[in-house]
Structure formats: C-alpha cells, structure tokens
Automatic annotation (TrEMBL):
SUPFAM superfamilies: alpha/beta-Hydrolases (SSF53474)
GO MF term list: catalytic activity
InterPro entries xrefs: AB_hydrolase_1, AB_hydrolase_fold, AB_hydrolase_sf
Recorded GO CC terms: membrane
Domain AB hydrolase-1: 15-247
Organism: Buchananella hordeovulneris
Protein name: AB hydrolase-1 domain-containing protein
Protein origin, superkingdom: Bacteria
Amino acid sequence: MLHALSHGPVTAPLLVACHGVTDSAASLADFAARLAGRFHVVAVDSLSHGLSPRWDGAGDPLAACLRALTATLAPLVATHGPAILYGHSMGGALVSRLAAEHPHWVRGVIAEDPAWLTPEQEEHFAAWGPAEAARLAAFDPRAARAHLQQAYPTWPARDLPGWLAAKAQVDLALVRAGRVGYRAPWDSWGADLAVPTVFVTSDTPDCLLGPAGLARLAATGNPHLRGELLPGARHCVRRENPEAFAARIEPYLAAWSRTDGS
C-alpha cells in the first residue's frame, strides 16, 4: 500500500490526488486545502516517492507505479465509493490509465498536463532521468527555495515545504530510469476511456500535452474526453495560476460530486 495524506470529512465524495515525478502528496497541499471542505481528499505518495515503498528495480517502473496505485485505490473505493481522480504529469498519466482499466471505480478524471508523451518527449525524459538523479543527489533545499520563489512567483506557498521535502525523499533509482509517462500512440487506449476525463494544459513550450495533444484527443471522437487550455502557464498549470485552474475544473467537480455521480 502507498502512503497517503487524508483531508476533509470521510463522508464526503472521495477525491484521490496523484503528484508528478519527484513530488509527493505533501506538495499537493494547496490543491487539497481548497477542496477539503467538500471532498474527502486522499493525496497519494506514488511508488518510490514521499513515504511510500520503493520500486524493486524489476521491470517497467511505470507499470509498477500503476500496480501500486491500483492496489491502494481498491480499498478506498470499496469503503467510500467511486472516486474522482486528479493527477499532474506522471500522476495524470497514471490516473487516466487506471480509469481506463477500472472505469467503475471512477466518477471522473482531471488530468493536468499528463505525461502522455510523443516519441520526442520520451527520448527527452530517457536522457533527463540520469541527469535529474545526479542533480537531486546534490540537492540544496535553501538554494532551491530561493530559485523557486524567484522563477515561479505564483506557486502557492502551501506547496513549497512538501515540494522541497519530496526532492530528498524520492528514490533516485526510479528517477534515473526516466520513465515518467506513456509512450505514443497513447490515443490508441485513450480513445477507449469510458469515464469523463478532462485534460488541462497550456500553450508554452514545456507543456507535455499542449494544443497539439488536445487536437489528438479531439480526433479520437471519444465523447468522454474534454480539453481545457489555460494560456500562458508552464507545465505545472495548477501552480502557475491556482485561481484560474480551480475555476476551470469547478464545473466538472460539481457535476461529478453529485450523489448519483452523473
């Protein structure tokens, strides 16, 4: 079972939140705080992240992450009923894939710039993994905090302690593997998603999905898939513009949190 942080009343609709690579459940503090008044928010430390168990080094690390997340979600759904799933980057890839495999567990999915990768992006992350692991091995939290506040001034202050701690907690073996998302052609199984799924992305160069990815999703003809573009944000769309992100996903959360899940 993965480690998780729970927020809000256990009688409220279940919302499970999954972070991106090298982050943790604690780095979703602002997202959880905004929604804990009306959802039972369970923020999960992915495999090899935060306080969760470590990847054993065998096989595909992303497949291992999905198995661990699935095993963690199963008892939550059995106790609380179907969940709304939210995930960023790697977390967005994982929750959308989980929803494809277990649609009856899920009311809806918010995938924030998920790691549904082009071949070029996959090559980039394969090279990024060893370099990022080396960088994190020499991580200086004070310098990182100063840089973060200068380079990303709109990021919620509540997220920063968890973000910084996560860099010291993450398993560098998993980072080194460079497997952060699903390979193209991801739309071959994305077209079969049978639950409402909203993809939130932006139009800056470091976004993974972007307008081109939204166009590919639209081309699947799947009526369950919706795209939302927040212009001008970088890859961490929610943190770049927390108010706009919250406003954009609110209609979906309101609809999915009805008692009947419709």
